[in-house]
Amino acid sequence: MRHDLELSKVMKRLVTAVMVFICGAAGYQFYLLMIAENWWPAATDIHPIGAGVLIVLASAAFGFILAPLFWWSIKKFGQFFESKIQNVSVPDLIVGMIGLIIGLLLANLIAIPLAKLPGGIGVYVAVLLNVALGYWGVRFFAKRGDDFWNILTNIDIKSKLTRSKKKGESPAPEEMQIASSCAKIIDTSAIIDGRILDVAKTGFIEGTIVLPRFVLAELQGVADSTDPMRRTRGRRGLSVVTDLQKVKGLTVEIPEVTLRELERDKVDEALVVLARRLSGKVITTDYNLNQVAQIEGVDVLNVNDLANALKPMLLPGEKIEIDIIRLGKENHQGIGYLDDGTMFVVEDGYRHVGERVKVTVTSMLQTSAGRMIFGRIHP
Fold first, then answer.
1. Domain that holds residue 363
2. Domain annotation covers residue 104
3. 97, 123, 137, 249 — which has fewest CB within 10 A?
4. pLDDT tens for residues 329-357?
């Protein structure tokens, strides 16, 4: 705050000095014109130098008086401009400036052949073209800001994904293009879950898995936690990353992309932005991240969905035996589990807690959080 006040004082003095100099120079130019045109012969005949000094000093004094008003106008305009752009992100500002520059270039290119119009009309046309095309450039680029910013940043981010798995090995351009287009950005939850490693070993996942530096940092933070449970999960995740790097046919890339570069504060939001810029997919087990990514139009590879899809399918009417181990949410329900961990809700099963009974499947509920099967005791 103190620094801002000192800077404001310096700028005010600078503006005052500039205004005094400009007005003094204007007074001197006026004095020369007055002599050339002989506007005030009496004053110049009596004492030409004294008249010139008097006019210059009077003009400089006028500039000194006008300087506070000019400085106040600059401050008000600056505050107004700052209030308008404080909620505008840096990418939007950059894209808007690019649009303004392109609009002004087009306006001046069009105005060049019109400069020879009679009556000085070309000057006014040039001014109108600059205003109109400059405004059009800013508006057009602002509306398509995300697309243009993605084009500008994708080159840098994708270049970070072209590093080879082995040091000193330079992949061919075709391989780099395929790796970028097939990129799969992995989330911390999927790494800690660990099942992605088993899936990768089977060969169902190939190409490039992108592990951003900020995800690896989050995983390391979990591994360094004081909570023994979190610390164990974090170390397991680091072990999964190491094993993923050893899977044949799979490339694990760790680009030096930060949250600041992606203009996001949260890891989940940054993952979605990165996936959209790389035209890739997000690997996760987080239900909320799954939903946000789908809303943003990003493809998601949910490990839970894969696990649920691979579970044995039970059709209504099938009969199985199951152990009821506890009461359900409703008083009349009993809860059991299949061998793969699927929850089985049994109607009127509250009387058979601790027993193994034969049940008939009635329906099934499938969600990203898991699968639930409903049934009733077979008579």
1. 319-377
2. no
3. 249
4. 887 889 998 877 788 899 888 888 888 88
